């Protein structure tokens, strides 16, 4: 089935990646409409050798559209996803607008593809850090149920959008040139610095990104019994997130078992060369579909051989956003 498709936020970091992925995967399209703000109307973006015009997003944008890939921000999704659904479209929404809505499936195709079938017009794409953690953790949980996850992220600028990626480059140039730099997109100096994730901090001290990793994982795994704690920070990396993950299993788990399971897991590539000290790196993960997993070792802080530590990297714009959404769209009937 070829869909009449629209991309909401086509000029953004995720939007432009949607174009690249639809082209690379030869996604069946009957037509493709590019939607962004009035600022971008008239701009051209290349797709399959053609220059496609960008149109301003309005209430009328969705007439005749069957599939919407949305990544223009939560407020715009809240406003326009219902408009698109009323016009007869299925919306795969990359924002956080509907993720925790119990009537909306939240899907990582490697984990819970069966949830797609119960959609009522909107399917939510999870948070990027959640996806990158869930892809390698789920197959382990299937074999030996996980009781507790401790995760620390090292998140790229791309998660804050194309403008944040530009700001990181400009900040680095300014620092190297000895010039002053005032951040405008991110709250703090992005270059040569690390800071707590830029989402709002709740009264309990957890920022929204950390809370998303916990609650979204519960929903995707259908398992709110897993204890999860996250620490999310931004690092001066352009487009791939890294995560240090410590897992406590129900039964003993060896590093060999984990390596075997992950080497067969869909969407995972094991990169774990101790001799060469070669492990997952965000630069290696950039532009790749797979989540790289390595530094697989026993976590001795968990008694009874039930602890495993690992380090993973995944492309935030691809598997963390655009690729996951296109994979969901590929599973629609
Ligand atoms: P535009 O480039 O015209 O501002 P990112 O996540 O990389 O920041 O991208 C955000 C995307 O959302 C861009 O495509 C941006 O378009 C789009 N966008 C932002 N504000 C609006 C708006 N008011 N109406 C439609 N699209 C918007």
Largest sheet: 7 strands, mixed
- What is the tally of helical segments? 8
The value of Rg in angstroms is: 20 Å
The hetero molecules present are:
adenosine-2'-5'-diphosphate
Helix content: 25-40%
Poorly predicted ranges:
none
Question: N-to-C SSE series?
Answer: EHEEEEHEEHEHEHEEHEHEEH
How many distinct domains?
A: 2
Provide structural commentary.
With 333 residues, the protein is of the alpha/beta class. It folds into two domains: 3-126 and 321-330, Rossmann fold (3-Layer(aba) Sandwich); 130-315, Dihydrodipicolinate Reductase, domain 2, CATH 3.30.360. The chain is built from eight helices and 14 strands. The chain has helices at residues 13-24, 74-86, 128-143, 162-176, 208-221, 255-264, 282-285, 318-330, and strands at 3-8, 29-36, 44-47, 50-56, 67-70, 90-93, 122-124, 146-155, 195-196, 227-234, 240-249, 268-270, 291-298, 307-315. The strands form two sheets. The chain has a seven-stranded mixed sheet, sandwiched between helices. The protein has a seven-stranded mixed sheet with strand order 9-10-8-11-14-13-12. The chain starts with a strand and ends with a helix. It binds adenosine-2'-5'-diphosphate (A2P). Adenosine-2'-5'-diphosphate (A2P) binds next to helix 1 and helix 4.
């Amino acid at each position: 089935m070829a869909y009449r498709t629209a991309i909401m936020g086509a000029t953004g970091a995720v939007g432009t990646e949607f174009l690249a992925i639809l082209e690379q995967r030869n996604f069946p399209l009957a037509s493709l409409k590019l939607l962004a703000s009035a600022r971008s109307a008239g701009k051209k973006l290349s797709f399959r050798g053609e220059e496609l015009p960008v149109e301003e997003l309005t209430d009328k944008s969705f007439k005749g559209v069957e599939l919407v890939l949305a990544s223009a921000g939560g407020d715009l999704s809240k406003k326009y996803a219902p408009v698109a659904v009323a016009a007869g479209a299925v919306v795969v929404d990359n924002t956080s607008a509907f993720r925790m809505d119990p009537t909306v499936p939240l899907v990582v195709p490697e984990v819970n593809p069966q949830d797609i079938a119960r959609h009522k017009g909107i399917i939510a794409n999870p948070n990027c850090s959640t996806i990158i953690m869930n892809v390698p953790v789920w197959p382990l949980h299937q074999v030996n149920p996980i009781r507790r996850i401790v995760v620390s992220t090292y998140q790229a600028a791309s998660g804050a959008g194309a403008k944040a990626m530009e700001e990181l480059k400009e900040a680095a140039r300014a620092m190297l040139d000895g010039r002053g730099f005032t951040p405008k997109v991110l709250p703090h100096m992005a270059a040569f610095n690390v800071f707590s994730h830029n989402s709002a901090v709740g009264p309990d001290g957890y920022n929204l990104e950390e809370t998303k990793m916990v609650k979204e994982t519960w929903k995707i795994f259908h398992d709110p019994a897993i204890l999860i704690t996250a620490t999310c920070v931004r690092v001066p990396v352009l487009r791939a997130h890294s995560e240090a993950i410590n897992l406590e299993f129900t039964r003993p788990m060896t590093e060999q078992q984990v390596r075997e399971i992950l080497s067969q897991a869909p969407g995972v590539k094991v990169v774990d060369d101790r001799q060469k000290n070669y492990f997952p790196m965000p630069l290696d993960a950039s532009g790749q579909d797979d989540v790289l997993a390595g530094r697989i070792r026993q976590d001795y802080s968990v008694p009874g051989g039930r602890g495993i530590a690992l380090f993973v990297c995944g492309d935030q714009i691809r598997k963390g956003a655009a690729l996951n959404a296109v994979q969901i769209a590929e599973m629609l009937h």
